[in-house]
Design brief:
The strands form four sheets. Strands 9-8-7-10-11-12 form a six-stranded mixed beta sheet, sandwiched between helices. Strands 3-14-16-6-5 form a five-stranded antiparallel beta sheet. Helix 6 packs parallel to helix 11, helix 9 packs parallel to helix 10 and helix 14 runs antiparallel to helix 15. It folds into two domains: 216 residues, Gamma-adaptin ear (GAE) domain (Immunoglobulin-like, Sandwich); 178 residues, von Willebrand factor, type A domain (Rossmann fold, 3-Layer(aba) Sandwich), CATH 3.40.50.410. The protein is globular. It has 536 residues and is an alpha+beta fold. The termini are far apart.
């Protein structure tokens, strides 16, 4: 009996697929895995690694994005007669900017909560005068018109930390706490981490010391505290590191603080540098548990710097929390140039703290200001009572660091007589004669402690009502405004006004200034790319 050609063809194809599928499925059996020690060790996380011709390949990115960011609710305008004081902690973290850059370079729009506007602004240095008095930083202010909202005003507040001659810098006791778990096994994680830390090691002095603690399934001391001149030994220990296993982050933190305390340098820079993707999944892993652990350790005078790496499972919220509670700073490293910026160019700000628990409190004069809003710093807001409370933790300022904050103001009398709040029944708030006769728009108060101090010092600086035309403002003013506008666009802010990507690019170009390192030029290109990708 003749078999129809179509039936014969389909049967043949089916048999071929069956044979191929059988070969593929049996190529690496469980028995073969069990007999291969290397595969057994490296294959602990089957979702992360792939087996390819007998060799461990680069890790496969997670099938779905598990990156985690703290929720941010944008600051809105507050009426001065109801809320005359604005209080917040400084923020010298710059991780959000390089993380946003990573998304844009991958042709993706960053999640809104990944965009912390104050970190975008503070990624850049500004040309502020060096302090020349008793305090370790200078406070500068500038007032002009808002470039994105006609009729509103913009106040620029800048802090300049005193620069340091690193030949005379305090001796350093540094512990590298390195995540070598399976999730770190890629060139843009452990590979980039090693390359970046080598740049730092090459700048260490004989007086400086480095130890290396690693953690994966367990924590261990890879290198005892070693003089900075033994660079080959330090780099060799890093080169030998390989990734694999789960993430015993809490155990690693305990050991790192123990090693740092054993080698503590009185009057020196005692610091842990934690490098990770933030994926803590063994030990104390809740945010609350991590916060309490780090808070207990910071009282020993050992500060914490956190370096974030990678994509797909980045735990940004946990790393930011660790750095904040550890009296340190947080940076995200997306390429080797960023590693050089953080660990070499800006090493003073990264490693040497000149002031801690730095808080600002601004009082607005209702005669001239109807309402205000702080741009960014949403997760750095403090209660007004916290300003004078020296037990309240706040941000740290490193040597040479600049900090910038912007306030958008609605002037009094700009058609804003109505209020969203009912009049009080039992008390009235009235403007004092002193306020009526004053030519002060607002008063800036700042508190800080010495790096080893427990009592704060106070600085006050009134801001005059005398502003200047927008086109006559400094490059500092206009460039920071451009960066703030860019952040508002990415966050789809309710306060965008007439800002768009083309305008932001123009504002930034006109205020680029000297730009020795090229970071501002890079920002302008990033704005252009973002506009082409997501602009209207």
């Amino acid at each position: 009996m003749r078999i129809p050609f179509k039936l014969f063809y389909c049967s043949l194809v089916f048999l071929i697929l069956l044979v191929l599928g059988s070969c593929g499925s049996n190529k690496y059996s469980n028995a073969e895995y069990a007999t291969d020690a290397v595969a057994t060790e490296q294959f602990r996380d089957a979702n992360t690694y792939q087996w390819n011709n007998g060799a461990i390949a680069d890790p496969v990115e997670p099938a779905h994005n598990t990156e985690d960011y703290s929720s941010i609710t944008e600051n809105n305008f507050k009426e001065v007669k109801n809320d005359p004081l604005s209080t917040f902690s400084i923020d010298v973290d710059r991780a959000s900017y390089s993380n946003v850059r990573r998304f844009i370079n991958n042709n993706e729009k960053p999640p809104k909560d990944a965009v912390r506007i104050e970190e975008l602004i503070n990624y850049f240095d500004y040309d502020y005068p060096q302090p020349d008095g008793e305090h370790p930083f200078e406070v500068v202010t500038e007032l002009s018109d808002s470039p994105w909202k006609e009729g509103n005003k913009l106040v620029h507040i800048g802090l300049q930390g005193r620069k340091m001659d690193f030949s005379e810098a305090p001796n350093s006791n540094i512990v590298f706490l390195l995540d070598v778990s399976g999730s770190m096994n890629s060139s843009n994680k452990l590979g980039l981490l090693k390359a970046g830390l080598k740049l730092l090691v090459n700048n260490l002095r004989e007086e400086d010391r480095v130890a290396i603690v690693v953690y994966a399934g367990a924590a261990g001391l890879v290198l005892e505290s070693t003089p900075g001149t033994r660079k080959n030994e330090i780099i060799g220990a890093m080169d030998a590191l390989q990734a694999g296993g789960s993430t015993a982050g809490a155990e690693g933190i305990h050991l790192a603080y123990k090693v740092a305390k054993e080698n503590f340098i009185e009057g020196g820079n005692n610091r842990i540098i934690l490098a990770t993707d933030g994926d803590f999944n063994v030990g104390v892993s809740s945010d609350g548990g991590l916060e309490r652990l780090i808070e207990q350790k910071r009282n020993d005078g050992i500060f914490l710097t956190v370096l974030g790496f990678g994509m797909g499972n980045l735990k940004d919220n946990k790393m930011e929390t660790l750095a904040d509670k550890g009296n340190g700073n947080y940076a995200y490293i997306d390429n080797i140039r960023e590693a050089k910026k953080v660990l070499v160019t800006e090493m003073g700000g990264t490693l040497y703290t000149i002031a801690k628990d730095v808080k600002l409190q601004i009082e607005f004069n209702p005669v001239y200001v109807h309402a205000y809003r702080l741009i960014g710093y949403e997760n750095r807001l403090l209660n007004k009572e916290d300003f004078n409370d020296d037990t309240k933790d706040a941000g740290e300022l490193g040597a040479g660091h600049t900090v910038t904050a912007l306030y958008e103001l609605v002037p009094t009398g700009k058609g804003n007589s109505s209020s969203s709040v009912d009049p009080l029944k039992y008390q009235n708030s009235s403007t004092t004669d002193k306020a009526m006769s004053s030519k002060e728009l607002m008063n800036v108060k700042l508190r800080y402690k010495e790096p080893t101090g427990t009592s704060s010092k106070l600085i006050e600086k009134p801001v005059s009502t005398q502003g200047i035309a927008l086109n006559s403002t400094s490059n500092n003013f206009r460039f920071s405004a451009a960066v703030a506008s860019y952040g508002m666009l990415l966050r789809e802010s309710a306060h965008l006004g007439n800002a768009n990507y083309n305008k932001v690019m123009d504002w930034a170009k006109q205020a680029k200034g000297e730009d020795k390192e090229g970071y501002r030029a890079e920002f302008i290109r990033m704005v252009e790319s973002t506009g082409l990708l997501f602009g209207e």
